[in-house]
Structure to design on (682 residues):
């Protein structure tokens, strides 16, 4: 199909926990649609989507990968995403590229860590969702229990389109043709009625026909309300499959074709035009004749091929001769080769229409999250970002060989360009470079790629903890900076007040000076002095947060007042105010989720308690494992990976993400303050 239209496109993301069978499901879909002759083998590393050497070694996806196929009258783009919790950010980054998120659940293990997280992310991003319960023919799976758990966890709007039969060797259709065969549990007729009841609730006229006139509704009548129910989250359809044996795969293709939204029917992402508070929403129209608007959701940097930017076209047409702007850039770039991706293969194509996923190579200015457009204006276009989890796991790094600093910096920045959840920090206070990611596996893969791709190695150690400072009371500060050296002097006087803000509200600076006691041109200098203290810390050397500073009065001299004087005065006045505002050191608290054998529950609970942690709940999985949720100070987790392995005999794993900042205990406050050596310069 080379001449398909936007309403014939289906963009599907396969998401879910590692081991759910997403990559093999993509293989089964490609095979059923005739795009490949036979399914690849995960153990042999012959699948379309897992082609990276590291993926073949581990037997799990580490990157989002694209493939596509044609089925009857539709063109389907599939994005296979990694399931390890450490790589959740890469999955979230691809959400704007699709209309439908198909969350794959392993029938054997049920709902796992990443299942819940990707469902939450898709809901927050206003995505149409469906659930695929895969591996239904595994002998020890309890499919009825899995379905019940799905509905208990994600809501009664989760309803099956088919049901397993014959011990998972086949499926019975509950929607299209109403299968008459016996299922392994439940009733086809009851499932069909429940689905129709749910769909017609969004269309009053159709509900009236259905309830009062008792008419059987056709697929055509149900199509629009079905799409509306999907878009609003009123319906989350469930499909049972086995990618290994092909059970349910043909029906899944039929579901993609007849029920899942096209680019003209899904919820469009939220584009903004302009910058900061001036940004205004832009309504995208999937019309090939409109101005082109596309979003880069994946970037790879290959030492041999160069930078590859993968983008979803939301509006307009992009051709191999198009000239596109990147964000607010004034100079366009010309597309020499427009590519469609099939796993590792890059196929040159002449054009892309709204809904298409395309790629361009060797455009150095393209970055992750760039917006490409051809509007010829100077406004910046950007996409409202998805709520990607903040990277909390860190390693301080230093070169193993002297003189490698520049090579390491270049390698890290190339790797960070590919990965939205990889952050490189330089801690000036501790004089260390810190690599932050989503977990131990995430950073291990990054360091291995540094060595393999760029031939650089580093030594690692635990980083300094990212403590913060804040205040708990209102106060005022005042400082007069006066310096006379024989020639022109320096003079600036500042009165300011500080007040605490709610946790995680950041910093506000307000100018309430009236009457010109501090001329307006010196207000930025006062703020500069305040911000120096914000960065350097006032009581223990850590950045300040969650407070408001209001400058309300001061004095100036017509000759001696200079910017440097008001920088110094602002800095000293702010430091004085902080000292009187009940300052406190904060520490990061993380949410932790642990998956371990259930017989290790007691030891894990005791260990967390000794680390000042608390357990919020636990769930015993059908597999016999226990999933423990809790909160722990980040400072207590530097050795947790090895400790958990020791407790569980190597079978435990955990993920963590930032929750909030809390005051550190009094003894710790004392120790951190005693180590601080404040600067004395002006």
């Amino acid at each position: 199909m080379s001449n398909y239209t936007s309403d014939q496109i289906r963009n599907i993301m396969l998401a879910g926990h590692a081991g759910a069978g997403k990559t093999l499901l993509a293989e089964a879909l490609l095979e059923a649609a005739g795009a490949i002759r036979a399914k690849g083998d995960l153990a042999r590393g012959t699948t379309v989507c897992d082609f990276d050497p590291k993926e073949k070694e581990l037997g799990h996806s580490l990157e989002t990968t694209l493939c596509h196929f044609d089925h009857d009258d539709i063109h389907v783009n599939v994005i296979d995403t990694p399931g390890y919790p450490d790589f959740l950010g890469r999955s979230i980054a691809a959400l704007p590229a699709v209309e439908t998120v198909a969350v794959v659940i392993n029938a054997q293990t049920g709902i796992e860590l990443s299942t819940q997280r990707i469902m939450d992310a898709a809901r927050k991003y206003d995505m149409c969702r469906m659930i695929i319960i895969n591996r239904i023919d595994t002998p020890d799976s309890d499919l009825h229990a899995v379905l019940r758990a799905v509905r208990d966890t994600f809501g009664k709007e989760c309803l099956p389109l088919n049901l397993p039969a014959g011990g998972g060797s086949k499926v019975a259709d509950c929607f299209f043709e109403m299968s008459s065969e016996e299922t392994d549990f439940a009733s086809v007729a009851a499932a069909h009625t429940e689905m129709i009841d749910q769909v017609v609730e969004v269309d009053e006229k159709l509900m009236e026909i259905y309830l009062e006139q008792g008419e059987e509704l056709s697929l055509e009548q149900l199509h629009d309300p079905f799409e509306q129910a999907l878009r609003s989250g009123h319906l989350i359809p469930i499909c049972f499959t086995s990618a290994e044996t092909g059970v349910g795969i043909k029906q899944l293709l039929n579901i993609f074709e007849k029920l899942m939204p096209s680019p003209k029917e899904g919820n469009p992402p939220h584009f903004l035009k302009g910058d900061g508070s001036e940004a205004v929403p832009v309504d995208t129209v999937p019309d090939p004749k409109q101005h082109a608007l596309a979003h880069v959701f994946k970037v790879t940097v290959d030492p041999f091929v160069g930078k590859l930017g993968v983008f979803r076209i939301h509006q307009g047409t992009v051709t191999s001769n198009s000239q596109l702007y990147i964000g607010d850039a004034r100079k366009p770039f010309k597309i020499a080769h427009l590519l469609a991706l099939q796993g590792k293969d890059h196929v040159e194509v002449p054009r892309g229409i709204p809904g298409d996923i395309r790629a361009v190579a060797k455009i150095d200015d393209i970055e992750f999250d760039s917006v490409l457009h051809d509007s010829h204006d100077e406004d910046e276009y950007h996409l409202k970002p998805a709520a990607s989890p903040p990277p909390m796991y860190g390693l301080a790094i230093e070169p193993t060989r002297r003189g490698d600093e520049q090579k390491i910096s270049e390698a890290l920045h190339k790797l960070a360009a590919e990965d939205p959840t990889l952050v490189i920090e330089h801690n000036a206070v501790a004089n260390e470079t810190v690599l932050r990611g989503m977990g131990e596996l995430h950073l291990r893969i990054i360091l291995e790629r540094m060595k393999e791709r760029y031939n650089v190695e580093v030594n690692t150690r635990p980083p300094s903890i990212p403590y913060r400072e804040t205040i708990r009371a209102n106060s005022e500060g005042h400082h007069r900076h006066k310096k006379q050296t024989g020639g022109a002097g320096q003079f600036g006087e500042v009165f300011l007040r500080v007040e605490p803000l709610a946790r995680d509200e950041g910093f506000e600076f307000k100018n309430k000076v009236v009457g010109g006691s501090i001329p307006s041109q010196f207000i930025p200098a006062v703020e500069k002095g305040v911000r120096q203290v914000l960065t350097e810390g006032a009581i223990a050397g850590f950045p300040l947060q969650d407070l408001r500073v209001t400058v309300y009065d001061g004095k100036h001299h017509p000759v001696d007042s200079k910017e440097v004087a008001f920088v110094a005065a602002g800095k000293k006045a702010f430091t004085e105010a902080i000292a009187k505002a009940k300052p406190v050191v904060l520490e990061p608290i993380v949410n932790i989720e642990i998956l371990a054998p259930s017989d290790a529950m007691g030891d894990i609970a005791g260990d967390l308690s000794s680390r000042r942690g608390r357990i919020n709940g636990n769930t015993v999985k059908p597999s016999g494992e226990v999933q423990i949720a809790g909160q722990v100070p980040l400072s207590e987790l530097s050795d947790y990976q090895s400790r958990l392995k020791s407790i569980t005999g190597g079978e435990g794993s955990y993920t963590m993400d930032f929750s909030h900042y809390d005051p550190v205990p009094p003894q710790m406050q004392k120790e951190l303050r005693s180590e601080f050596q404040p600067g004395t310069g002006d």
Q: What stands out?
A: The first strand starts at residue 9 and ends at 15. The chain has 16 helices and 35 strands. The first helix runs from residue 22 to 32. The CA atoms of residues 117 and 540 lie 36 Å apart.
